[in-house]
Amino acid sequence: MGLLSEGTPLSWEETKKYTQHVREHGITQFINIYKRLRDRQGDVLKWGDEVEYVVVKFFDDGREAKVCLRAEELLRILNEREHANPEGVKSLWRPEYGAYMIEGTPGKPYGGLLAHFNVVEANMRHRREEVSELLQPDEAVMSITSFPRLGCINFTHPPTKPTPDRGATRSLFFPDEAVFPGHPRFLTLSRNIRERRGEKVSINIPVYKDKYTEIPVDSYSNPTMPDHVYMDAMGFGMGCCCLQLTFQACNISEARTLYDQLTPLCPIMLALTAASPLHRGFITDVDCRWNIISASVDCRTEEERGLKPLKNNKFVIKKSRYDSIDCYLSPQGEKYNDIPVIYDKADYKRLVDNGIDPLLAQHIAHLFIRDSVSLFSEKIYLNDEEDTESFENIQSTNWQTMRFKPPPPHSTIGWRVEFRPCEVQITDFENAAIVCFIVLMTRVILSYQLDFLIPISKVDENMQRAQKRNAAKEEKFWFRKDITTQVSPPEANECCKTGSINCDMKNCDMFVEMTLNEIINGKEGEFPGLIPLIKSYLTGMDVDADTHCTIQQYLQFIQKRASGEILTTASWIRNFVREHPEYKFDSKVTEHINYDLLNRIRLIQTGKISCPELLGDNTKSKTKDSVPTALTNDCL
Ligand code: ADP
Ligand code: MG
Ligand code: MG
After folding, report:
1. Rounded mean pLDDT of the chain?
2. Quick check: is 578 in a domain?
3. What cellular component GO annotations does this protein have (predicted)?
4. Which burial class, exposed, middle or buried, applies to 347 when counting CB atoms under 10 A from its CB (0-12, 13-18, 19+)?
5. DSSP 424-453
6. Cβ(397)–Cβ(321) under 8 Å?
7. What is the pLDDT of residue 26?
8. Which domain holds residue 518?
């Protein structure tokens, strides 16, 4: 979940005294990074994925499944191995919000060879096996976006009870003991977000109305939103899992371009990877975690949410600190920043006075409208020439669809961009396919100099559409009609010219609404489609037969998900519950249904059973454990 600095956490009352201090020094630290590294050039493509997992314990006798609060214990062992052999381990493990969650990344980032696409899945499989070896036979490590009965009575093992009248979270449903105990950051954030907001977070998600659905209006519901599943803790969002990836750009300008160009793809990829229809034991009417996680860390006060006139706060702020980005960063993006971006004028001026251009200054100043909500007493007074922790404090708690990452101090790492919207899929095959698809998209964008930009307001609209039930099949999304630019090479134009795409711009709208299928697979005569663009890019590249085969399998899988030929994870899960013999058409995911669902997922993830509705004829690719010798024309 980002920065993990050690130390003694401060209460909100104490943190509050230092918010302006952190802001001032954080901005100074960014200015210093920028001055030092703005001209850094020549970094090569490197990239890596992050997969989050839930540890689940199965009780076969009673047919129940619980989240297993053993993450800390597992991480201790996994991290010991890393410390003993930092260069040699194949995977790195980090804590996440839940005491039942772990996050795994490859031991080293991948590089710019096509052949690297053929080791991603093997590495993911290795990660799963590495953890599985530490588990009991009745436990499993599972890449599921939401644990279906999170927050239901007895959802943890060992059993825990929520403490609504005390502790950090004060939830009716989510006990503090389900929060990762090994690092103070997580409970501190939960407490400080609640205290800053002035009340518990309030997450309300429409229930999926089935034939016999009744949501009782009682002390466990929100009386003002009767047809909604009510959740009141950070854990309902941050306790979900996701799939992220980070790429290194050759310089700051390429990073800014990628940040912008990938932004319109965020809602598209959210819809394509939708995997979380079940929350707190209910089938909901959404397919994704996004709005839940956004509300789960919404630390805005009533004034900031516009419910009361501003008195103690500076701004009315439209979004939670976890949401889609608010402004583009590249010169091409500027004109599409159609929603006023809020920032403190003095912060902005200081950035500009220090030689930072207005667009980047706006981005940084906007990040810094948020207060620090997790501060350690040892990390208040820092050397702004050397340290970046005050900057990272705010940067790492702006959880947005994209993240623009400056090089860390004293490292060989360059300017990077993180792609953060995707929900995590059940199998390594699916996760690897999605990751490789996005990395290929970055290469297509850069080499064909494509332009995907649409107004930020339309990206916001797409984010909401992406989460609706069955959005992948039924929704339409705003997309740019002509994605070639004046500098796009002829191949791109060829590819885009499948019909009248080069139409006279005066007579057509620049932005059109298309289905996921049309965006990914193309629309005859109107839009080339992302997969055909990737295929055209790959033509003429030379790669070993196995890698070629893997890439083709991944692309075919993405095509099928987008066309609806195979189901999204969310649709598959929804169907599983609704077709379960014990389902009463009351929107409830009972203990037994939960157990059977997770058991089925467990069999699918290990390849013990196939699942053509979800995966087509794929179970795993011809992926390899190590990269074969590169062919000459294999460079991305
Ligand atoms: P976060 O900011 O989410 O905490 P990390 O900095 O831990 O992310 O890294 C996330 C991903 O970045 C990992 O998959 C890792 O392999 C990858 N990564 C590491 N070094 C680089 C690099 N130089 N360029 C691009 N990605 C990298
Ligand atoms: Mg994470
Ligand atoms: Mg990340």
Report:
1. 94
2. yes
3. glutamate-cysteine ligase complex
4. buried
5. PPSSHHHHHHHHHHHHHHHHHHHHHT----
6. yes
7. 98
8. 428-476+514-615
CA angle 202, 312, 366 (to 5 degrees): 75
Q: What is the rounded average pLDDT of the residues 43-60?
A: 98
CA of 551 to the centre of ligand 1 (A): 23
Task: Give the position of tokens 């199965």.
Answer: 58
Residue nearest to atom 19 of ligand 1 (CA): 109
Q: Is residue 375 part of a domain?
A: no
219-247, pLDDT tens digit by residue?
888 888 989 999 999 999 999 999 999 99
Q: Is the CB of 127 under 6 A from ligand 1?
A: no
Task: Give the C-alpha separation, 614 to 568, whole Å.
Answer: 7
Pocket of ligand 1 contains residue 246 by CB under 6 Å: yes
Is pLDDT of 413 > 60?
yes
pLDDT at 632: 56
Q: Tally Cβ neighbours within 10 Å of residue 5.
A: 16
The contacts of residue 134 (CB under 8 Å, 6+ apart) are 74, 77, 78
CB-ligand 1 contact for 157 (6 Å cutoff): no
pLDDT at 563 over 50: yes
- Domain-located, residue 158: no
Q: Give the number of domains in the chain.
A: 1
Cβ–Cβ under 8 Å, residues 301 and 313: yes
pLDDT at 124: 98
**Ligand 1 touching residue 398 (CB < 6 A):** no
Q: Is the CB of 407 under 6 A from ligand 1?
A: no
Write out the DSSP string of 207-235: BP--TT-----STTS-TTSTTEEEE-STH
Nearest atom (ligand 1) to Cα of 396 = 2
- Residue percentage of the chain with pLDDT more than 90: 89
Placement of tokens 């971006």 in the chain: 341
The angle, 0 to 180 degrees and rounded to 10, between the axes of the packed helices 456-466 and 265-272 is 10
Q: 508 in ligand 1 pocket by Cβ < 6 Å?
A: no
pTM, 2 dp: 0.96
With cut-offs at 50, 70 and 90, classify the pLDDT of residue 504.
very low
In this model, does residue 298 exceed pLDDT 60?
A: yes
The alpha helices in 41-87, defined as continuous H runs, are 71-84
All residues at 6 or more sequence positions from 130 whose CB lies less than 8 Å from its CB, including other chains: 78, 90, 91
For 263-267, what is the mean pLDDT? 98
Cβ–ligand 1 contact at 46 (below 6 Å): yes
Task: Flag whether 239 is in a domain.
Answer: no
Torsion 569-178-73-95 (CA) sign? positive
Residue type (1 letter), 68: C
Q: Dump pLDDT digits (tens) for 361-389.
A: 999 999 999 999 999 999 999 999 999 99
Q: For a pocket test of ligand 1, which of 44, 49, 50, 402 has the largest count of ligand atoms closer than 8 A to its C-beta? A: 50
Q: Which of residues 329 and 506 earns the better pLDDT score?
A: 329
Q: Quick one: which atom of ligand 1 is closest to the CA of 247?
A: 25
Ligand 1 geometric centre to CA of 406 (Å): 12
Question: What span, in angstroms and rounded, lies between the C-alpha atoms of 593 and 482?
Answer: 47
Query: What is the per-residue pLDDT for 3?
Result: 60
